[in-house]
Amino acid sequence: MQTSLFFVVLIFLTYFSVRKRAHVLSMRQAQGDAGGVPFEPKPSPISQAILDIGGVAGGIYIAVTALSAFLKLEIPPRISVGGVSFDPIALVSLVSAVLWAAFQSTPQPITSHSSKNRLRSQQESQVRRIKGQVGTQIGHEMPHGCGGQIGQAKG
């Protein structure tokens, strides 16, 4: 009974974690974080979320294994619960990675008209500033007598 309840809770938490990560990834793609035209098939947010859980769990596993070896902790290599045998460090790593999604913040979409206008205005002012700097540099590098005209012959 306890074993089946444990697995039901673990599956529920994994489902919640995958959904949360998929939502975060789809929000980032909607805001343009993906960028560019992909040359390879684009992975779905669900597949990216599952890969993310595996990566986080693997990183936690390596860190806990290194820490336990450094501290010379006696951790049993296998634990059996209700007829199921597993690595305790791997279980802790997987559960930690699944729970990590609950603490991950969801990016907020840029939807307000004023936010878009403010962003566009900032981009335009940066472009004007860069054009001014480039024009100043070109003017200083030109030989005397060119009059700031590029590509025109002197008459």
Question: What does this entry look like structurally?
Answer:
The chain is elongated and about 75 Å long. The chain folds into two domains: 90 residues, no CATH class; 38 residues. The chain is mostly helical and 155 residues long. It is built from four helices and two strands; from the N terminus they run ααββαα. The chain has a two-stranded antiparallel ribbon with strand order 1-2. The model has no long low-confidence stretch (mean pLDDT 76). It is 63% helix and 4% strand.
Provide the fold topology:
Elements: H1 2-30, H2 45-70, E1 79-81, E2 84-86, H3 88-100, H4 113-141
Antiparallel strand pairs: 1-2
Helix pairs in contact: 1-2, 1-3, 2-3
Describe the structure using short key phrases:
single chain, 155 residues, mainly alpha, 2 domains, two-stranded antiparallel ribbon, 4% strand, elongated
Order of helices and strands: HHEEHH
Number of helices: 4
> What profile does the largest beta sheet have?
2 strands, antiparallel
Strand arrangement, major sheet: 1-2
**Weakly predicted, low-confidence segments:** none
List how many beta strands DSSP finds. Answer: 2
What percentage of the residues does DSSP assign to strands (E)?
A: under 5%
Structural class determined from secondary elements: mainly alpha
Label the overall shape: elongated
**How far apart are the first and last residues' alpha carbons, in Å?**
97 Å
Helix content: 55-70%
Overall pLDDT confidence: 76
The figure for the number of domains is 2
Overall radius of gyration: 28 Å
